[in-house]
Amino acid sequence: KRVAILISGGGSNMLALARSMTGDHPARPVLVASNDPQASGLEKAAEMGIATAAVDHRPFRGDRAAFEAALLEPILRAEPDILCLAGFMRVLTPAFVQRFEGRMLNIHPSLLPKYPGLHTHQRALEAGDAEAGCTVHEVTAVLDDGPILGQARVPVLPGDTADTLAARVLAEEHRLYPACLRRFAGG
Ligand code: GRF
């Protein structure tokens, strides 16, 4: 299976996924694409020998469809079987999602359905939750919704800040996402 990974920044989840796709793994990374040409994950992907592409979303202003049409070019050229959103911070239109319905995954840093959207760790702390975590789900037209492939839980510890909780969850993301992708790609 050919996997394209979409990132917006450091790409630590992309690296975890790319590093997991070796040996008898049923998938291989064929492209890392970003909405930010400065995303440091692009450099890391190139160092791993993975093809990269970047389409800056800012010139498109609010014209999501035009941005996505530009982003689709390198993605379709890579002929991916699976799309993995990994720290990708742009909302995708239903039209884009429909193209990859059933073969596009995302990782979200909360125990969905709790805390869709942003600032998930701050919200968990403010709610006084005893635990937090992350979710890998299939991407559908509804943001941070869709069938759940897997979740990982971490305790919220006394004195936690959004940053300390985020770091604890991120470590779990790097384990959960590769495990979910391997199962998903294996059929
Ligand atoms: C992190 O907040 C992570 O929880 C979420 O996206 C952000 C960046 O992840 N999935 P990455 O390091 O770019 O993979």
Automatic annotation (TrEMBL):
Please provide, alphabetically and separated by semicolons, the GO molecular function terms listed in this UniProt record: phosphoribosylglycinamide formyltransferase activity
**What does the record give as the reaction this protein catalyses?**
N(1)-(5-phospho-beta-D-ribosyl)glycinamide + (6R)-10-formyltetrahydrofolate = N(2)-formyl-N(1)-(5-phospho-beta-D-ribosyl)glycinamide + (6S)-5,6,7,8-tetrahydrofolate + H(+)
Q: What are the positions of the active site? A: 108 (proton donor)
Hey, where's the site called Raises pKa of active site His on this chain? 144
Q: Which Gene3D superfamilies does the record associate with it?
A: Formyl transferase, N-terminal domain (3.40.50.170)
Coiled-coil region list: none
UniProt GO cellular component terms: cytosol
User: What pathway is this protein a component of?
Assistant: Purine metabolism; IMP biosynthesis via de novo pathway; N(2)-formyl-N(1)-(5-phospho-D-ribosyl)glycinamide from N(1)-(5-phospho-D-ribosyl)glycinamide (10-formyl THF route): step 1/1
Enzyme Commission number, as recorded: 2.1.2.2
- Where does the chain bind (6R)-10-formyltetrahydrofolate? 64, 106
* Keyword field contains Membrane: no
Q: Where does N(1)-(5-phospho-beta-D-ribosyl)glycinamide bind?
A: 11-13
Which keywords describe this protein according to UniProt?
Answer: Purine biosynthesis, Transferase
- Occurrences of domain Formyl transferase N-terminal (ranges): 1-180
Q: Its Gene Ontology biological processes? A: 'de novo' IMP biosynthetic process
PANTHER family from the entry? PHOSPHORIBOSYLGLYCINAMIDE FORMYLTRANSFERASE
Q: What does this protein do, in the record's words? A: Catalyzes the transfer of a formyl group from 10-formyltetrahydrofolate to 5-phospho-ribosyl-glycinamide (GAR), producing 5-phospho-ribosyl-N-formylglycinamide (FGAR) and tetrahydrofolate.
Stated family: Belongs to the GART family.
Q: What name has this protein been given in UniProt?
A: Phosphoribosylglycinamide formyltransferase
Q: Which organism is it from?
A: Falsirhodobacter algicola
Name of the gene: purN
